[in-house]
Amino acid sequence: MIEVVVNDRVGKKVRVKALEEDLVGDFKKLLAVQIGTAAGKIALKKGNTTLKDHITLGDYEVHNGTNLELYYS
Which residues form the Ubiquitin-like domain (predicted)? Predict the structure, then answer.
């Protein structure tokens, strides 16, 4: 179990618990429940890379304590 910090760049940070084997799409669903937004409207970035829904968090090297940026599409 890992804990990922998601920052919306407006000062709100959300901590989401997930598994490294989870798909980014599944992670977005967990995040959407916590922030009250539809999962389809969420875009996540790590550095300059936009995370795609069908790839696992581990493949993007998202580990415990990793920071992701939240964008709305």
Answer: 2-73
Residue 43's pLDDT is what?
97
β partners of residue 72: 42
64 CA to centre of own chain: 12
Distance CA 72, CA 8 (A): 9
pLDDT per residue over 1-34, tens digit each? Answer: 999 999 988 888 999 999 999 999 999 999 999 9
Annotated domain spans of the chain:
2-72
Quick check: 34 and 14 in contact, CB under 8 A? yes
Residue 11: what residue type? G
The CATH classification number of 2-72 equals 3.10.20.90
